[in-house]
Records
---
Amino acid sequence: MKTKHILLGIGAILAVDYLIARINKTPKITYKEKLPFNYNALTLPPFGIRVQNKNKNNLLLIKHELVHWKQYRKTGAIIYYLKYGLQKAIYGYDKMPMEIEARKQTGETKYCQNNYTECVRNGEAITIKKPNFRV
């Protein structure tokens, strides 16, 4: 009986989380001087997207983050974060499917979709150029 209640509770939480994601169509985009871990931009469901001030006009970078927002809206925040974390742990940042999808939809070359860190560092990426990216 206890297991049934726990499962119902988890199901209810996931259902509410999913409904919030479906309602939360347009993210609030805020600009900050600095982001954690020297990120250029990041998507924080259900709160919105954060972008470094210096990348305010980088529409391709924002488009990349909007792909992550769409990914969140399909699953809800809980599943989004679990999926993102598991993919990063299993594949690493450059090879994780959620990031590759965002790179592909942004227009990165096939090579840069799978070797993003190298492309950002050497200037081949179209979304961002940063010699010390992910160092």
---
Amino acid sequence: MTRARRTSIAALFAAALAAVSAAVATAATEDVARGQSGAQLTLPAGWSKLTPAGDRTDDPRTLLVIGTDGARAIDSPCLVTSYRVPVDGAVVVVVGWREPVGGTSFLPLSGLELRRGTFKCYTGRGAVARVTRRDRDFQVNVLVGDKADAATIDAALDAARSFALAPRV
């Protein structure tokens, strides 16, 4: 094997090792917010896990809520929109049912799209997805303030699309 070829192989190996190390470091720095029933979301930088508002029903119930600075639970007759959304912020709310409710395939996480009028008790922009994991139905909801910038909107939608259940141990 020529010296140039050995040098090329060594350089390629070093580059691959650096890429793998960077990916592991990035994955290790991502925070994950976990809630009831194993629900989890990737927590965007600057966001925090919120205390869920009191549920008005036994089923569905709020499992996990994350939001930007200034977001908090408020008194509202509506389960999903029981949160103050800062005008430049966002909130992601995950609710789940104990019994299957079906009809989840028409609102996938990949299809999350902000619209006005998504939620009965919220006049701002929102998006909703319904998913089934481990034979349980969940609804992932995004609420965005009217002056939220593109980065905040992208972070909210990415966080919602990251919905998963914690691995069983």
